[in-house]
Queue: 4 jobs
Job 1
Amino acid sequence: MRDNSSATRLIRPVVLSRTPSGLWWGLLGVAAFSFTVPFTKIAVAGLSPLFIGSGRAVVAGVLAASALALARQKLPRGVQWARLAVVAAGIVIGFPLLTSFALTTTPASHGAVVIALLPAATATAAVLRGRERPPLAFWLITGVGALAAIAFASMQSGGFGQLHSADLLLLGAVVAAAIGYAEGGLLARELGSWQTVSWALVLASPLMVFLMMLSLAQQPASATPVQWAAFAYLGVVSMFLGFFAWYRGLAVGPMAQVSQVQLIQPVLSICWAGLLLGEALTWTTIIGGVAVILCAGAAVRARLRQPPAQHAVPHSTRSLQPAKD
């Protein structure tokens, strides 16, 4: 009995030490992603949105192919390629291109508020994809969050019911990323987390190279050093290295806690928009951002809440269930 007790004491510090480590990795990933919207806004001032959306994926694709080759990863099999195509369509093609075009005509702080709907949208996509049956509160809160984001966008576009084309692009980007994240979360259980993102980047590379060359033919790339630096950040960090930190945090866990760290991303993005771009933070932006973020957080918590029958399941097992986020 004494041996068993000592073994238990040896294991417990390891479990406890994982929590802050996972959270710190998650915070690092979120911090990296929080610069995406402001830096995209900086880059589109000198580069075409088509070049930014496609070029950043090409840069990340080269890094991803190198990482996969160095790690000697096995090729995906069969239907995994089709599922990778869904991931690529969402997070490699859809989100970068749609946000790049949207931010040519809308402030970065405005875009950050609309994109704040992403955690709730991802949870919804994961529920539908995984055929889960979340409580009614989840659907109600998610609906309120969506209405809050649409109301905010319409108010800043001239009145209720009047959405700017940029808002439609941003909402489309949220839907695309949510589907990509949800499918990627499921596929990561088979291929690995960073491997899934890397294979998606490689799969999308031929199309993105074509789009990049097309954009250069239409408008030769010419930008200031600051704009090129912003573009480099989008390709190296937002599209590649940020995912390493984010998925490392999810892997170390507890995943249910780490996944909710994403809720502070829009707050950071709005702050960076004010500090880096000098955008004024209006009360409408602050109230809209708080409303969307609170609804997103409540929706994620409602989905992660365990039914009473599973209370006896160890925490280490329960923390794996939100992997779809």
Job 2
Amino acid sequence: MTTEYHNPVMLAECIDGLALKPGGVYVDVTFGGGGHSRAILDALQPDTKGQAGKLLVFDQDPDARTNAAAIDDPRLTFIAANFRNLKRYLRLYGVRQVDGILADLGISSHQIDTPERGFSTRFEADLDMRMNQQGDLTAKQVVNSYPEPDLHRILGMYGELTNARTAAAALVSARANQSIQTINDLKEALKRCAPRGKENKYFAQVFQALRIEVNDELKVLEEFLEQTPDVLAPGGRLVVMSYHSLEDRLVKNFINKGKFSGEVEKDLYGNEIKPLQSITRKPVEASADEVARNPRARSAKLRIAEKK
């Protein structure tokens, strides 16, 4: 199963960023195919005399659970949950603080390359896009039931479409005649909106918008980031890799300001009140060699912070 997953993006940079301690406790909140997690386990102390390092991993995708089961290692604990519930689940497992947290955001190549999941513009399939297949909301429901102003909002805000209003109107017009059930239905409804010669990029933006809405991705990221200062031990590292500007902006602001908008707050003495210290002044990006080997790395931005 793991061979179907993507090669981990910026693997060495992520592992370096965590500054792993052999006996430390770490969390990978986006387990996926387990590429990053395997590298973390390789760096942790083996299970001898009760001094082993520990790795807890989160993923809501059933395929990821199968991949975790294939790793026969007592130091690994798989948690079948969304990482927006980070603190609650760690406490259920008796963990109060950890030495490092890794988040590789976005969608895995495995999910994109599984046609029936409905994530890719390359395949014909039902409009699904749920990362958690037990979730209630699908992309089909969004395009067929959302009012036009809401479609305008998510296409503009999450897809960053310059003609979001026109695209929303086109979807409402198309569904009035026949419900939009499949990926091809969606592309047909929006074909007049896509700039000539840039159709693939346009539909990728539309899919990004729908996927973010279906999975509540930006709210999930905010809730996760807000919990990290409580979960990290002093000196613990937060390593986050994002794949589009909306995610990266949230990560950057939280690390630099301790919040998602506005200016950093200061105490009576003018000291900044923020729980994390940025380790990377600018985001780390993949090398040209890695991008050539793994196109998914092209848009990746890695930020690293440390708990004060």
Job 3
Amino acid sequence: MPKPTIVEVARLAGVSNSTVSRCINNPEKVDRKTLARVRKVIEETGFRPNLLAQSFRRGRTDIVLVVIHNIGSSIFSDIIDGIRGVLGDRYSIILMESRSEEQGHSRFIDLLVARQVVGVILLCSSPPFSRKLVELDNFPRLPVVIGLEPISEDLASLPSVHIDNHQAAFDATRYLLDSGHREIMFVSGERGSLITQDRERGFVAAMAQAGIAGGAARILHAELSIQGGIAAAHRLFGRETRPTALFCANDDIALGVMSVAPRFGLAVPADLSIMGFDDTIYAAMANPPLSTVAQPTRDIGERAARRLLRAMERPDETPAGTDELAEILPHRLVIRQSTAPRLA
């Protein structure tokens, strides 16, 4: 049987997550009837808060939680190395996936409500996570930094480190346009992803600037993985009219597309130019090597960790304004052999 979570205890008791937290950590602040009801549910379900939480009554833990979208995605390795380089000597780092399982969100909330971590680096800021985060009793006192992704409105008050995804996508699309391509499609990520929404807008803006209408209709959504790229390729290449260039929301999608192209008689880049995003370690090893947008991934990890360290060590210090909240790092285009000029 799976272990009960704080979220399940709250639901069964008809109270909020924060109320369950107060029953565990500060029972004197809860009225007797509510406390009795929650304690009864805790006893019936066998829920047990981690003993680590009790250490906060004596001091604090030294655990930093890093939340990522998919632990198998190659972009996160350099970022996590950067985080460890700054925090590793003083803090233990635990990783958690955010992929949209409800149980995953519950575990995330359990850790924060039970105060088992001293800080959080979110390498994903999707709305379900952000909404649950701001509803916590100890938000915004809990130090949280966003890395890699743009900020959702719910988390606009938090410090962040990322590139300008809109401009990066605009620049990549502009490169394909300047190479003579007009039939360009953007293979984006899942609908609702903040990071791919910014890239979609950059793609549409570049197409519109070039006088090409219907940019939004040229967007195909896929899972941000090699398997997502394979599925998208089958959908695209089965059409009567095929694009001459594809801009993909990440390198994994691009690699998936490249693996399928020969099955449809398409040579890269002679018949189809493919552009990725992220410049992961596999991009240069692809056949042909993948053109892509490079993010300073290790730098993102290091800077996010430094900002978290500062927030943990100086909890009363607040940034002076919005310019200090968002740290925008530079991107660059890396042109390799998967893209080529479109010959008339």
Job 4
Amino acid sequence: METADFLDTLEREGRLLAAAAGEAGTGARVPSCPSWRVRDLLRHTGVVHRWAAAFVADAYPSPRPMGDPPDLDGDALVDWYRDSHRSLVRTLAQAPADVACWTFHPAPLPSPSPLAFWARRQAHETAVHRFDAETARGGTPAPIAAEFAVDGIDELLRGFHARARSRVRTARPRLLRIRAEGAKDVAGGGDALWTVRLSDGPPVTERNPPTGAAPDAGTDARTHADAELAGPADRMYLALWNRVPVPRVTGDASLAALWRETSAIV
């Protein structure tokens, strides 16, 4: 996916999030995040939008804290979120392609740049929280495209959990396979696959097969996994963000429990 694709997705997902939040009401519980109500969801996502936009707008080169949410609720809070989202989309759309600013994880991109990083990160941030808002509203959530879901799984595994702060660790080396069914792998073959090497350090994840390899490359690594988490790409995307259960677990089920208990982003 290209930066323009992520911007289109971000624009759409933010509008859907605001609409669902408005329909649910800010006091509604968020079933996919049981400790939250919709007001918490809006305050969090709006603050993240403004934080991200400021790095790009100011070409800011180092980390800085997020701001505080406003003391708003009800329709006023929904409107504040809409304004936060519109400002983010506008900032990213108008930014120069070569803007230099801080980013915070190493997940590869087809055209790596700070602008591409923030468009991608905010598209996925918003898509996951749009799902949260729709669980609060009730009814059938909007679909998540397979290509976007695969990209989000890759960002999570090779970005967030490549960082030293990932808590997904095991006392002895283990091998976890992630399978997104019905989505093309990097060689254009069948299911999208990842091999996650677990240890007492941060997870190390590889796409299978490696870029440029034949579709059957990496078979040994996939065959000898201690456990596999598998399901349709959109469900695996949500499952790995701990929004829905993993559709299917084979092998050592304790690794699925380990993911659920330790993979929350901190």
